[in-house]
Amino acid sequence: MLDIETLYLSVRQLGNLLRKRQISPVELAESYLERSQRLGPKYNAYVTLTPELALQQARQAEREIRLGHHRGPLHGIPYAAKDLVSVEGYKTTWGAAPYAEQQLGYNAAVIEKLNGAGAVLIGKASMIELAGGLGYSNGYASLTGPCRNPWNTDYWTCGSSSGSGAIVAAALAPWALGSDTRGSIICPAASCGIAGMRPSFGRVSRYGVMTISWSMDKLGPMARTADDCGLILAQIAGHDPRDHDSLPVNQASFRYPVSTSATRERLRIGRLTNAWKRLPDPLEQSLSDAIGMLREAGEKVEDVEFPQGPYEEAAELTILMEAAAAFRDLVSSGRCAQLRDPLGQINGYASEQFSSSDYLQVQRVRAVLQKNVDRLFERFDVLTTAAQSTQAERLAEQTSPGGAEEEDEEIESRAPDGVSSLCGLPAISVPCGFSTERLPYGIQFIARAGNDHRVLEAAVRFQRLTKWHLERPV
Amino acid sequence: MTSRREFGRVIGSAAASLAISTSGEASDSEAKEPDSEIEARYANALRVYGDRLSDAQRKHLRRILEQNEGMLASVREFSLQNSDSPATTLRLEPAG
In A56-73, which positions are buried (b, 16+ CB within 10 angstroms) versus exposed (e)? Predict the structure, then answer.
């Protein structure tokens, strides 16, 4: 078995070792599989391991590399896929009891792409039931139990790409596929101290992937570094006529890295001053230090505010309304009662009460909000703020309905997840420090729709200045 | 999605604040209008699904509907022109 130092290497570093034949795809897959079998249950990180498929793909990669046929940066590299992505021959549970035995019998488009790239699938990552599509209260809302954070197993990884976050943080695989409707990649990436990228809406095909919200769902990479996210995105991006919202051919594909001349430009970075109501002092300090480093490195940073508007409300309403349609059969049949979370068991009944007029009103507001946010990018290449307003959350189960009314918090009407998800903007979270309890903090970069290379550029530059991404759980 | 989860958790208090604020600033008839919409939606949900719900779930359902109404109120307050069309299929702004 390979040593732990090797298993914590980036996709780029592992790829170099594979191409030079200093390690073999088979021993790499076996090492991650052994670690996943041993530690996966500790974190509730997987729904299913796929050792037969992994070893078959690894052996094929080994043969091809030996013959000098290199398919690209993911050739022979193991990964995990969130269990809402269909893989032929395996269950696709959507993290939810009503679908615990579901087999869809075909490969999702993103799996087809990864098979073509020679990647090695070692398992299907655990997730929040239905990716939170019918709502949920805490990390226990999962078919496989609460996903535990490798930095401290009393804490949650965040969700809904919970297992994907734990898998990368614990080096059970070097990268994992996640999905993000409103924060489901960014939040677990921040909580787990890894890089997680939500691409522009329409960049990666969702054919064969569970739907929450047709107009907001995205797939994206979660990995050790931002650079790895770029390598992976270039392999999984592209137009797909089977996905209604797939970007056109000339906009969907993605090259990484971008040209050398573009990478020498100073970035115009807008520091969002009204994204969060308040941040804990250690997080505020980590963010200030991060911004300071970017300034010292020559990037141009100015303060900026998100425009006023009901972004969070519009995002949440869009998800509720579209999810009610996406899961109509589950709700009308009453099988939603099998969901673990008390909110998920009944939320569909409430969401069915929205009218078509409500939906159209939200979408009319959305179009205006989208234009208002886009204007910010006339002045800035990227916007930046904390990826989340807190460290990872302690796990605590809620078994009775409701319980939220005692909370006395204010709505974050311009929290970045709502704004950027509503408007289809690319975003990335990379680690930027630790709380006093040594749980990771993340900084995020957001760019104009279609400018995925900008968020990668900002995050890669930041990671060249820092070593937070080299830290790992004990 | 912790953001969605946190949002669901905090929107309850926001909706309550909105109701207090509305009753303080608007006339009685204006203040009652959202309540009647909540009542109608609650009654319809119970008509279709009531036999599946416990008392605790009914209370929870009502609170969710109140929260949803709070979000709808924020969206309805946003100023629109007649010609503002819906993003029923999200179109991305052209990349710069």
Answer: ebbebbbebbeeeeeeeb
